[in-house]
Amino acid sequence: MPDAAVPTLSDIQAARLAIAGTAIRTPLVRLNAPEIPLEVYLKLENLQPIGSFKIRGAANAMAHMSAEELQRGVVTASAGNMAQGVAWRARELGIPCTVVAPESAPETKIRAIERLGGRVLKVPYDAWWRAFEERSYAGVDATFIHAFDDPNVMAGNGTIGLEILEDLPDVDAIVIPWGGGGLACGIAAAIREMKPACRISAAETSTAAPLTASWKAGSPQTIEPQRSFVDGIGGKSVFPQMFERARRLLDGVLVAEVGEVASALRLMAERNRIIAEGAGAAPVACALRHAWGVERPKIACVVSGGNIDLTKLAEIFGTK
Q1: What is the pLDDT of residues 198-228, one digit of tens each?
Q2: Could you give the domains of the chain?
Q3: Strand, coil or helix: what is 270?
Q4: How far, in Å, CA of 241 to CA of 221, rounded?
Q5: Most exposed of 2, 37, 89, 219 (fewest Cβ within 10 Å)?
Q6: With a threshold of 0.85, does the pTM exceed it?
Q7: ∠ Cα 120 122 125 (to 5°)
């Protein structure tokens, strides 16, 4: 496939078959907040076996590997969730898994990777980011699985789009967290073929918004992100090929403040008893602050994961 290729609807439908039995079909539920002027629906990827959507892309990527590639074992660069997806599937297949993680990765995610049998290499942030760019890590002889810049990973993620449209055919808009872009572009690839009028927006926080900066400039930009509990999104830059895909597939980027994300996280917990990590709550925060321009629009928010440190969660719940 060309560098900036996107999965076709056929690719995504095939991915659904390939990942069946590893990833589950997650529910789409309405946020119990009748007082707000829109209908928010929550796509609960936090209910996946690893607590994140990443299991979909990881399973589909590995389904496309040869026996020889799998026998070498697999390696990925991840702050936690993709690592868990790769480690989960590697354990199912009985092959070794190595994870290159930034030193700042939450301990709750590191412990989860290790419980799944993954070997974790904690490295400085810049070395971690180079692993994404070089698609390898020195000293690790294994097949690299890219967390987002891979059409097979995006096709696995795109199965979420199929499920949203099956459960809510009259959805007006979908809001998706933007980390590396593999989730947003994968879902958008499905939606653009099946319901092109649906508005598709990426979600970022104001303290770490590389896609917003790139969108405004019209080219990939590098920023200095401020770290917060919203750790699953907000890198320092956007890969050029991911930016090209985003411009083709997305309608725009929505941004929320970190405090608004915390409020959205509390709202989901109070009204629906749903626990989300910061990245998973960001789409809800963005949907609630955006002026949609139509009466009571139906907005699907992808709750990408629920792997938040419990100490941090308790801190957020105790702050108003």
Answers
A1: 999 999 999 999 999 999 999 999 999 898 9
A2: 9-53+151-317 (3.40.50.1100), 55-145 (3.40.50.1100)
A3: helix
A4: 13
A5: 2
A6: yes
A7: 135
